[in-house]
Specification:
By secondary structure, the protein is of the alpha+beta class. It has a single domain, classed as Pnp Oxidase, Chain A (Roll), CATH 2.30.110.10. It contains five helices and seven strands; from the N terminus they run αβββαβαβααββ. A six-stranded antiparallel beta barrel has the order 1-2-3-6-5-4. The longest helix is centred in the N-terminal third of the chain and has 14 residues.
C-alpha cells in the first residue's frame, strides 16, 4: 500500500470529506462521459457516498442506465500551493437509487450534512443514491497516488 496505512488513508478521506460539500460526479450516456456537481456525504465507514438528484436530470437517467460512476472530491484553492498541498480523491463504485426504507435511513445522514437541501432531497421528484465504493484513489503532493480498496 505504498507504506501508507489504511488508518492514515481513512484519516485523509475523513478530513477532506469534512471540509468539502460538493463533488464532481461522472456518469456516462452512450459511452459519452458526463460530469456535474453534486452535494455529497460519506458514510462513517467510508463504504458508501450519498448524493441526491432530480429524477428529470441527465445524471439520474445516466445512473439508472449504467450504475458505474466515479466522483472527484478535492480541496483546491486554485493557487500554486495546491500543487504541493492539495488533495484529490477519485471515488470509483456503483450507484443505486435507494428504496423507501433505505432512503429514510440515509436521508437523515444526507440532511445532517446538507440541511439547506431538505425540501429538494425529500421531494418525490428527487432520488437519493448510494455509491457503493469499490476504491478510493488518493492523490497528494501533486503526484503521490495511493489506493484504498473497500
Amino acid at each position: 500500500m505504498n507504506s501508507t496505512s489504511k488508518a492514515s488513508l481513512r484519516k485523509i478521506l475523513k478530513e477532506l470529506f469534512a471540509t468539502q460539500r460538493l463533488a464532481c460526479l461522472a456518469t456516462s450516456e452512450h459511452k459519452q462521459p458526463h460530469t456535474t456537481l453534486v452535494a455529497f456525504v460519506a458514510t462513517h465507514d467510508l463504504k458508501a457516498i450519498l448524493f441526491a438528484t432530480g429524477k428529470s436530470s441527465k445524471k439520474y437517467n445516466n445512473v439508472k442506465a449504467n450504475k458505474r460512476v466515479s466522483m472527484l472530491v478535492d480541496n483546491r484553492t486554485n493557487r500554486i500551493k495546491d500543487f504541493n498541498r492539495g488533495t484529490a480523491v477519485t471515488i470509483v463504485g456503483r450507484a443505486e437509487e435507494l428504496n423507501a426504507h433505505l432512503r429514510e435511513r440515509y436521508l437523515k445522514l444526507y440532511l445532517k450534512r446538507h440541511p439547506y437541501l431538505n425540501e429538494f432531497a425529500k421531494s418525490e421528484n428527487s432520488g437519493l443514491f448510494r455509491i457503493n465504493v469499490d476504491n478510493y484513489r488518493i492523490v497528494t503532493r501533486f503526484q503521490r497516488v495511493v489506493e484504498l480498496h473497500m
